[in-house]
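Forgive a beginner's question, but would it be possible to get a protein, spelled out as residues, together with the matching structure tokens, please?
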Amino acid sequence: MEDIEVYVKGNETTQVVSFLNEEIGALSYDCEIDEGHTLFTCNKIAVLINTGIQDGYISVSIKGAEKWSSDVEFARRLVEVLGVTVRCDPGVEFPEISPYSDIFVEINEQGESFLEWG
């Protein structure tokens, strides 16, 4: 089971939490770790949302969910359901991209592209 981390453009916390409630089960607010970092849980799944990311993005980190096999798979689902722009690590779907690079995949309703970010 791989940990998931993606970056969603805009302040879409409410929509992401609603989406996850439908996809993995009812999330419970756990705590605000510090300003901008909110932890939600559902069974053995932990979701950390950080609203303090550059360029107007929020990060969504998920530990313990078996529903998605990669960041890219999860990002594609977010775009499909919410119509948002998502950036993530290319990971296993794009083995030609070094995991140590600053190259991200940006996925939106217009398609997928690579960009340097970070």
Observations:
- The longest strand covers residues 45-53.
- The two ends are 26 Å apart (CA to CA).
- Helices lie at 13-24, 71-82.
- The chain has a mean pLDDT of 94.
